Amino acid sequence: MFGEILTSNSSMTGFREDEEVTSQDLLYGTILTSGGETGNSLDVHVAGNVEDFVLMMNDKTAELVLNGTHFTSPESLHDDNQYKTASHPNQAQIGDTLKLYESLSQLK
Question: What number is the average pLDDT over the span 66-85?
């Protein structure tokens, strides 16, 4: 599951593949350390697999009209077809969308 993340020297939180952790632990690991393995674990939990989660990410960017953003992986491994804009006219809408996710608002 973590093969590409390991071989690309991606940032890791340190959870083992067989370790049992909570969703909140995974959120912390994704946000605080940019842990690729925690992100992938959440992706599988939410969408069933990483590929479907990427489709969900791109659907959300289309919904938010983020035309300068396209994802090929959730952990931001290098890919010429993956790109993100640093600023966008819809940043306020993005902030409002993030506020909807109660789990994120509870992180301190």
Answer: 83
Among 37, 49, 40, 46, smallest CA distance to 74 is for 40
Give per-residue pLDDT as tens, 35-53.
Answer: 677 777 788 888 999 899 9
Q: What is the mean pLDDT of the chain?
A: 74
Q: For the stretch 10-26, what's the b/e string if a residue is b when 16 or more beta carbons lie within 10 angstroms of its beta carbon? A: bebbebeeeeeeeeeeb
Structural contact between residues 41 and 29, judged by C-beta atoms closer than 8 angstroms:
no
Sign of CA dihedral 14, 41, 96, 70: positive
Region of residue 73 (left: phi > 0; alpha: psi -120 to 50; beta: else): beta
Structural contact between residues 96 and 107, judged by C-beta atoms closer than 8 angstroms: no
Mean pLDDT in residue range 63-87: 81
